[in-house]
Amino acid sequence: MNEFQLIQTYFNQADLSFSHPNICHSIGDDCAELSIPSGKNLVTSIDTLVDGVHFPQGASAYDIATRSLCVSLSDLAAMGAVPIGFTLAITLPSLNEQWVKEFSGGLIEIARMFNCPLFGGDTTKGPVLVITIQVHGFVARGASIKRSGAQVGDKVYVSGCLGDGAGALPIVLNDPLIRSGLAQHFYKPLPRIDFGQSILPYATSALDISDGLIQDLGHICAASEVGMEIDIDSIPMSELLLNTYDREQALQYALNGGDDYQLAYTSSHCENGICIGRVVEGNQVLVDGQLIGNTGYQHF
Amino acid sequence: MNEFQLIQTYFNQADLSFSHPNICHSIGDDCAELSIPSGKNLVTSIDTLVDGVHFPQGASAYDIATRSLCVSLSDLAAMGAVPIGFTLAITLPSLNEQWVKEFSGGLIEIARMFNCPLFGGDTTKGPVLVITIQVHGFVARGASIKRSGAQVGDKVYVSGCLGDGAGALPIVLNDPLIRSGLAQHFYKPLPRIDFGQSILPYATSALDISDGLIQDLGHICAASEVGMEIDIDSIPMSELLLNTYDREQALQYALNGGDDYQLAYTSSHCENGICIGRVVEGNQVLVDGQLIGNTGYQHF
User: Fold this and answer.
1) CA–CA separation, B300 vs B298, rounded Å?
2) Chain A residues near residue B44 by CB distance under 8 angstroms
3) What DSSP line would sit under A221-239, residue for residue?
4) What is d(CA B57, CA B46) in angstroms, rounded to the nearest whole number?
5) pLDDT at residue number A239
6) Would the CB atoms of A3 and B300 count as touching at under 8 Å?
7) I want to staple A31 with a disulfide (CB 3.0 to 4.6 A). Which of A67, A220, B43, B122 is the partner?
8) pLDDT tens profile B19-54
9) CB B138 within 8 A of CB B40
């Protein structure tokens, strides 16, 4: 099976590149074409995952695919956007049909779950597996949630339990084929798309927690020129995490581990999520009054 | 200089991520935000270039950048689109400031030339240099030129000389730092953006010639369910190519070499470009009545 046949069979199949009201023209031309609803803007984000860097070597093609699409969609969730579709640029060491079939299966699961079909891409040969996904969605003009809107007096919220992604990492590094328990948070960190839309009316700032809570809250503080006080006892952690690690290690993962893909946001009043602190004057994130080391994910 | 500082200094600089009326929100949030003019659709295309595969190892960062952005923009040209901006996902073996500085210099030259700023991206670490660029533009709704509209009786046109890109390849493989003569067609294959917009009113189909004329015309034939007859004497070739290679070799490059990034299009009447043949019934591309071997670029 050559490149064109392979793409046709597994990437351009009806289960993956399914029709969507905002996709006028999909795979097969030099460009894809999207129509953006009147009064809406397009929001888009691009993310790369490299074999052995962003997922362990030896992980299954299916799991690599679900993780890749989930982490990209998480950026749409952080803006409060409705997904339209995604593009995929994949560099493969060889054309292994079984691998591509499993990979497309993982994409299909997540694409269907979030009504976000594949509408374009590029398949290239290279010495290492590199996956780049760009996701596309829309928001009402002027309504997207940015990092720069946090106000002194706002409270700080998160959308769910923290630390599961970082807690899963030692487990999948030890056995890349484990999928149950914490490992599923690594391979399938379901993006909080609905949550992102639900906080649109009252969130003053938001982002997805990918590099670690403290580092990511620091991004909101820098963009909004504010500080934050976080109450350590309010940090939500799963029973799964607390049953696997002692409390101190679990808290380390929750505060500084990456890969959570929950949303953090600020608002003057809570309607959704878990309140973990407040926005104050300053430029630092303090945890129970202390400046703790920022050991979140370093990309280089 | 860490990742954030490097991105801030070289990718998020005013010369590269300059303002554009359709970019509401650029680098710095989870997503970028574009506003598409009323009555227009977004067109977009993603392309990957891998070190040692799509450009020779040892090429300068500047030249890699100009080539990467040019070949991506060529897809917008083929749709008759006006550029808005591009995203960049780059995987680097290490953070070499001088390399990133030169690379951003090459991007700036092409981005400025086509009013197409950088508005988002992802920088990752990996064992090999991989560059993925997604370009974004707009066209009037229903006006984009697709591959599927060629009609029996149309003529076949190209936008300029063919074979220079393929003729340059042995030269740059021999010395990746040569920039003059044919080599500039490899590193700076300027996308035919204005030409693409000029043929919008009368082109029935179009694409950019990236894999070789005969292979690419075959894509129009397949999408439009037609055949083509090409007149070999009408194939335009540059003096530079004909002074470098004998006529037979030059023709081989023009017919089957890749990397031209001229446009090929069909129309019932010519107003622009060079007529090289006609659309006929059938499903094959014949050159002077002969079916010639399709030895265009094979991706795997």
Assistant:
1) 6
2) 31-34, 87, 120, 136
3) HHHHT-EEEE-GGG----H
4) 22
5) 96
6) yes
7) B43
8) 999 998 887 777 899 999 989 999 999 999 999 988
9) yes
Phi-psi region of A142 (alpha: psi -120 to 50; beta: other; left: phi over 0): left
pLDDT tier for residue B94 given thresholds of 50, 70 and 90:
confident
Angle, in degrees to the nearest 10, between helices B213-224 and B247-256: 40
Helix (H, G, I), strand (E, B) or coil at B168: helix
Count CB-CB contacts under 10 A for residue A59: 22
Mutation choice for A interface testing from B31, B49, B197 by most A CBs within 10 A: B31
pTM of the model: 0.92
Residue contact A46–B139, C-beta within 8 A: no
Asked whether the beta carbons of B67 and B183 are under 8 A apart, the reply is: no
What is the value of ipTM here, to two decimals?
0.90
Radius of gyration of chain A (CA): 20
- State residue A124 phi and psi, 5-degree precision: -130, 160
Beta bridge partners of B265: B157, B206
d(C-alpha B257, C-alpha B249), whole Å: 10
Q: Residue B240: which residues within 8 A CB-CB, separation 6 or more?
A: B164, B167, B181, B182
Give B70→chain A minimum CA distance, Å.
Answer: 14
Backbone φ and ψ for B74, nearest 5 degrees, come out as -60, -30
For chain B, how many helices (H) and strands (E)?
9, 12
